[in-house]
Amino acid sequence: MKVCALLSGGKDSNYALYKAIREGAEVSCIVIVHPMRDDSWMFHTINTRVAVLQAEAMGFKSKTYNVEVTGVKEEEVEELRVALAKIKNIEEYDTILVGALSSRYQVERVKHIASKLGVKVYAPNWGLDPEEYLKTLVREGFKFIITSITVMGLPFKLLGKPIGLEEVEEIVRLAKTHHFNPAFEGGEAETLVYDAPHYKKTICIEGRRVKIREFEYKLLVEKAKLEEKGSHCIKIL
C-alpha cells in the first residue's frame, strides 16, 4: 500500500499515519490542507502550519505538499481533488489515508475524490471507541495538547495543557456530563501533536490562549521549532 496521507496536525491524522507505517505502508506523500476560512466543514483550521514540522519530524519533509483551499463548503473538496490529482503526477500512490473515527461527512467526500483518481481510501481509526482511543494514544507515547475548544463543558485550563491519562479521565467524565464526543470527532475541540513514537524530533511550542466568546477558546501558536527527541518545551501564556 502506497499512501498519500492527509495530515492536519491533530491527533487523529497523526495516529492514522503511525498505524499505517506500523502496518508496513509506504508513505508516498503527505498533504497538509490550509483552509482560508475558520469555518471549514471539511478540514482542521487552527495552527495547520505546525503540521509541516510534524512531517519533517517523521522524516518526510521532501514528500510534503501544502494545499490551500478556500474553506467554502464543497468547493474545498473539489480544490483538494485538483491538488491530489496534480500530486499524483509527481508521487505514485494508490491510497488516500485519513484519520476519521466516525465522520461520514469527511470519509464520503474523500471516497468521492478517491474514485475520481482511481485510488482507495484507508481510515485505520474508523470505529474505534473514543474513550479507549484516547487512552491508547497516551499509552503509546503520543504527546498532544488541545488547541481549540468550542463546546460547553471543556474548561479553559485544558487549553495548551499536555494530555496524559489524568486529563483523559477528566475529558471522559466531562463528556458524559455534557454529552459531547470525548475524542472530539464532532469538532468540539482540536488538538496538536508535538511528539509521537514515529517522530525523530520533538516540536517545541510557544503560544497564548485567547477567549473568543463563551465556551470558545483558542491556542494561537506563535513559535514552533524542532528540538532533540524528548525535549520538554511547551510554553503557553
Describe how the helices and strands are arranged.
Blueprint: E1 2-6, H1 11-22, E2 26-35, H2 50-58, E3 64-69, H3 75-88, E4 95-97, H4 104-117, E5 120-122, H5 130-139, E6 143-149, H6 165-178, E7 189-195, E8 202-213, E9 216-227, E10 234-236
Parallel strand pairs: 1-2, 1-4, 2-3, 4-5, 8-10
Antiparallel strand pairs: 6-7, 6-9, 8-9
Helix pairs in contact: 3-4
Keyphrases for this structure?
237 residues, putative n-type atp pyrophosphatase, domain 2, Rossmann fold, 2 domains, five-stranded parallel sheet, alpha/beta
Overview of this protein structure:
β4 (95-97), α4 (104-117) and β5 (120-122) form a beta-alpha-beta unit. It is built from six helices and ten strands. The termini are far apart. α3 (75-88) crosses α4 (104-117). The chain has helices spanning 11-22, 50-58, 75-88, 104-117, 130-139, 165-178, and strands at residues 2-6, 26-35, 64-69, 95-97, 120-122, 143-149, 189-195, 202-213, 216-227, 234-236. Helices cover 31% and strands 29% of the residues. The strands form two sheets. The chain has a five-stranded parallel β-sheet with strand order 3-2-1-4-5, sandwiched between helices. The protein has two domains: 2-122, HUPs (Rossmann fold, 3-Layer(aba) Sandwich); 130-236, putative n-type atp pyrophosphatase, domain 2. It has 237 residues and is of the alpha/beta class. The protein is globular and about 45 Å long.
